From TrEMBL:
Signal peptide: none annotated. Keywords: ATP-binding, Helicase, Hydrolase, Nucleotide-binding. Gene3D superfamilies: P-loop containing nucleotide triphosphate hydrolases. ATP binds at residues 204-211. Coiled coil: none annotated. This is AAA family ATPase. It comes from the Bacteria. It comes from Kribbella alba. Residues 183-526 form the UvrD-like helicase ATP-binding domain. The keyword RNA-binding does not apply. The keyword Nucleotide-binding applies.
């Protein structure tokens, strides 16, 4: 970035004056909306109440969307177009949202508008009518400090964009994730601006910008399809609350304040009241469970052994058992459980009405309803198609070995069925306790009993590689007619129940028509660190290619070997060294090691926060202690990793976990170990530098 001292002062002053004008205009827009009266329709019926509530909500959102955030610059770029390209305007400032003056003339154009696209796409070879691109630099307090011009006319290839990108990536981090709107790369822009349908699935190595792309895509879709999406809403599902806290400010900075960001547990499940061993959780998360649940539920429907005798006055009408049997068989094939039960009552009643008509009566709908609700029909329903709730079916399945065997058929082996059975079943389904995996099964049963209505407009699944088949089915059900953005990295799949391939993931979501794309430029992690972490890939994801870095950083990776006695002191020294630089610092260790290590840091006079204990730990402290299982999706300028072997040993997919942990650093990674490194990392050619005990 050209500093202000080097710039022609009048031009910088003019830009600053323009920025002030834009701020004033935004304040006026905000004020106008604030005082605008929300129309209220008189009357108290549901429609009117709904409309009034919707209007109030829309008004509140508009007010929020126009708040001028103090640390978010109002614009970040400028394009000079060839005269006449856009009617009446040759120059546009591009920003996070639209700002116009009192007479409606645009001062800042939204980055999502069509005319902003060349900011991301134009090159000297393909100018797209642009003659000059300007990029601005701002201080942390959003003060305009300088700008840099890139003429596209008569220019050769420029590396200015790369320098700007690098500066942006390496700008020290404080607190939550920030947007990348000033530097979205062309391959990312393709995904951000892809249409709402079909769904999109992005495989990408660590730090390729998947989360950033997903969030900017949501902002883009809300811009282009706001009305369509406002009906069903947009939801972002992330792996845990710490991650959601980390990403929470990106969309509001882009002017989008009405997107729910939640974990899968919050979206799908009742709070779990029990837990499963990993092997059992894996079985319960398997797609075979869908088949078993379907069989279990429908086994409640039986074959009638008697017909129905309906009396009206002195007349008797008989519907034979085989006739009821035919109705039951047809309904089983075509309905869900609860509506099927209602339909059975109606069809039996209809058969009675036919008999009445044959005897010369002319019964109407009221008679049909009376028959459907009559005692003999109710008795038939209770015998042949009883009312059931999901909990009742699942309780029986996990308590009754015969019922499980009969429902499982060939789907599960005898050993697997034994594992699924509860050791101490609750007396009744009402007192049963449910694990997180159980609640997903209950969700499936609920939908088999009665179709879930409504569909989200758009659903973003981040870290989707970790989701199970049954979770994906539950998510797909919530977005039947909407579209999905699936983001993930198969090499970072750490759950034992991970679905495996993107084809499978999309199949479970019922979005098999999704476009699958790959991002392979790693923006976060310097080359040396990517190359080091990628040594694990042949073991954890042999089919994936090695990601490409976009930068090398001097001394990015250090491996410090020490002994048990001086291990803690060495770690403290590493954290101190990391804190000597700028930006955020993390100490990452196996979950059961992190608290004692944090105590050691506190005893040494450092002031770390513990991630997980407080959701906003990353906002409040420069040094954060991160349990390895919470590291996914996060990043820090400097990272100290304690004892990789323990991270690996802590769980079945420990190598995948280590891969995640090793790829969190933007500029500096130090690995401190007393135990040998995992074999793949330990080969002589992989270690760039080794330092003996300090
Ligand atoms: N175009 C870009 N301009 C500037 N920074 C970028 C760009 N793309 C990605 N980054 C930065 O790279 C980092 C990684 O991005 P992000 O977290 O979206 O990656 P990811 O692929 O989701 O990573 P992971 O798989 O580790 O979760 C972030 O700091 C992000 O801001």
């Amino acid at each position: 970035m050209v500093e202000s001292a080097l710039l022609p002062a009048p031009e910088l002053e003019a830009e600053r004056a323009f920025l002030a004008e834009a701020h004033a205009a935004l304040a006026r827009m905000h004020g106008d909306v604030l005082v605008r009266e929300v129309p209220v329709i008189g009357g108290e019926d549901n429609d009117e109440r709904f409309t009034n509530e919707a209007n109030t909500r829309a008004h509140q959102q508009r007010v929020l969307a126009l708040v001028d955030l103090p640390d978010v610059p109002l614009f970040f770029g400028l394009l000079d177009y060839e005269p006449g390209t856009i009617e009446g305007i040759d120059r546009i400032h591009i920003g996070r949202r639209h700002v116009h003056d009192g007479s409606g003339v645009p001062l800042v154009v939204d980055w999502r508008a069509r005319v902003s696209v060349p900011f991301y796409r134009a090159t000297a070879g393909d100018r797209q009518h642009v003659v000059l691109r300007r990029r601005y630099g701002f201080s942390d307090a959003a003060e305009l400090t300088g700008f840099e011009d890139e003429p596209l006319v008569g220019a050769g290839p420029s590396d200015q964009a790369d320098a700007f990108l690098r500066a942006e990536i390496e700008r020290p981090r404080t607190g939550p994730m920030r947007d990348i709107v000033a530097t979205i790369q062309p391959e990312q822009d393709d995904l951000v601006r892809a249409p709402l349908h079909p769904s999109v699935c992005v495989q990408g190595a660590p730090g390729t910008g998947k989360t950033a792309v997903g969030l900017h895509r949501v902002a883009y879709l809300l811009y282009t399809e706001r009305e369509r999406l406002s009906r069903g809403g947009v939801v972002i599902v992330g792996p845990n609350r710490s991650f959601l806290s980390y990403i929470r400010k990106v969309l509001p900075a882009l002017g989008e304040v009405d997107v729910r960001q939640i974990t899968i547990d919050e979206l799908i499940t009742e709070p779990a009241t029990a837990s499963d061993e990993p092997d059992v959780a894996r079985l319960k998360s398997d797609a075979r469970m869908a088949v078993v649940l379907r069989r279990a539920l429908w086994s409640y429907v039986g074959t009638p052994t008697d017909g129905i005798l309906y009396s009206k006055g002195s007349q008797r009408f008989r519907v034979h058992d085989y006739e009821v049997g035919d109705i039951v068989a047809a309904l089983r094939e075509s309905t869900r459980y609860a509506p099927g039960r209602n339909a059975l009552a109606q069809r039996i009643a209809h058969a009675v009405l036919v008999l009445m008509e044959q005897r010369g009566d002319s019964p109407d709908d009221r008679v049909q309803n009376a028959v459907a609700r009559s005692k003999p029909v109710k008795a038939m329903l209770d015998a042949v198609w009883p009312r059931v709730v999901a909990e009742q079916v699942l309780h029986r399945l996990f308590s009754d070995a015969d019922f499980l065997a009969q429902s499982a058929g060939d789907e599960f082996t005898a050993d697997e069925r034994t594992a699924l059975l509860w050791c101490k079943p609750a007396r009744s389904w009402k007192s049963a306790k449910w694990s997180a995996a159980d609640t997903v099964l209950l969700d499936e049963l609920d939908d088999l009993i009665e179709r879930r209505t409504g569909s989200l407009g758009h659903l973003v699944l981040d870290e989707a590689q970790d989701l199970s088949a049954m979770q994906l089915r539950a998510l797909g059900r919530r977005c039947r007619t909407g579209s999905v953005t699936v983001l993930g990295d198969l090499a970072q799949a750490t759950t034992p129940w991970a679905a495996g391939s993107w084809d499978r993931v999309l199949g479970h979501l019922e979005k098999a028509d999704a476009v699958v794309a790959e991002l392979d430029r790693g923006f976060r992690v310097p080359d040396q660190i990517i190359d080091f972490a990628a040594k694990l890939l042949p073991q954890i994801a042999p089919t994936l290619g090695v990601p490409r870095g976009v930068r090398t950083v001097a001394d990015a990776l250090t491996i410090v070997q020490t002994d048990e006695r001086s291990f803690t002191d060495t770690l403290v020294a590493s954290c101190r060294a990391a804190l000597a630089g700028e930006g955020s610092v993390a100490l990452v260790a196996a979950d059961d090691q992190i608290s004692p290590l944090r105590d050691a840091l506190v005893a040494a006079g450092l002031q770390p926060a513990l991630l997980g204990a407080a959701e906003d730990a990353m906002d409040t402290a420069r040094l954060v202690c991160v349990p390895a299982t919470l590291a996914k999706g996060l990043e820090f300028d400097a990272v100290v990793v304690a004892e990789p072997a323990q991270i690996v040993a802590a769980e079945p997919r420990g190598l995948q976990r280590l891969y995640v942990v090793l790829t969190r650093a933007v500029s500096w990674l130090q690995i401190v170990h007393a135990a040998p490194l995992p074999t793949a990392l330990n080969s002589p050619d992989t270690i760039t530098r080794s330092v003996d005990a300090q």
